[in-house]
Request: fold
Amino acid sequence: MSEDGLSRTEARGLRQAREIEGHLGWLDSITGAALAVLAVASGIYTYLGVSSLLDDTGALSVFAAMAYSVAVSVGIFVFWSYMMRLLPAMRSMASVLGLLASMALGSVAIIAMSSWLNAAALAGAAAVEQHLATTVQNYQQALERANTIAVSAQGLQRDVARVRSSFTDLAEQEASGDLSGFAGRGAVFRLLRQKADELAALEAQIAAQEPAVAAAFADGNAILSRMRALTVEPGPVEARSVTFSEEAVRLANVITQLRQLSVAPLVVRAAQDLSASVVLPQLDGTSADTRAGQQATIDSVLGVLVQRAETLRLAAEQVMAMEAPVETIYTPISTADAVILYAGNFIPSWAGAIAIDLLPAVLVFIVMVAQAAVRAGREPAAAEDQMTLAELRAALHAMRDVELALNRVEEADDEGDARRAAPRPGGVTVVSRGPAE
Reply:
């Protein structure tokens, strides 16, 4: 550092500070207009978002949406104007942190009152369509699950047929005398035929449900096809949502019908009745030995009956234990709610909606860095060393003006003293004296 001038480093810092100040001066002339454009753009999208939330389309609703959007535009412009002017000018860390906290709080408020509505305007229709598509997927899963349970229940027909066939075979063996040792259609034969007939009736009931299950599943798929078409059909999404809601109600009824068509509960009750409700025929043997043989065979048949009934019951309960379809209910949703609900699917829209409101924060940080560089370049040098040639000329002109003014005052004072000391007529000289001390 030289004694009568600036070092090279200080001189370079001053030149940089003056260059940055020149750029800031030019940029300041367009900053206000840029903030106004961003605020107005945000207000427009906010108006569209608010309009989508209002059910009424009358003049009052339009006025309310416009008032809200204007308030948002003014609030954004004023807030960022405050930040642009005040935050770069802060010197102490406490004041900088205080304004940064205020800016963070204001940014959260802007997102709450504007950005989510901007996102609703940008991607609201697409978000509602996403809601429709997700609902279709949920209904499809529920339909397929209900059909799987119903078809699994229909599969119990094979188990029932196998048990019925075993009792029929036992009855034929009894008729030929291979079971109890006494040929004929006596008490044991009638018991076996009784249970075989009960199982045949149950088998017929299960078989009768199969066309109804297939028809219900076909109806459900047809409704799903119409619902999928509504999700991608051109036109206003609000009108499509109404039709979609009607189809959703029909599909819910079909799913409920499929759940009711499951024959698993019927098989469980039939299996319980199979062993519990047994009408024992009267022993018709002609001798005591024959009747004893019939009784022994009947006891064995009852034991087998209990085992087969338990097998059927367990098979039916396995079907009943299958996970039931998730109950799906379509709920109409607004564009703003849809954007929030499916925010992860519309990250670019959310980013654009937030950026249009918070982009001035980047400008604030830029001005902060620039002002800090200006201060770093100016503070090491004395005030007189920071003056530019134009400033020095202005200072010299100001000094000359001050000197001229002082000279005029002194000349006026001298002239006044001379007038007061001038001789009066009659040879009397009047000397002006100051006030007595």
Remarks:
- The longest strand covers residues 423-424.
- The first helix runs from residue 8 to 53.
- DSSP finds eleven helices and two strands in the chain.
- The two ends are 55 Å apart (CA to CA).
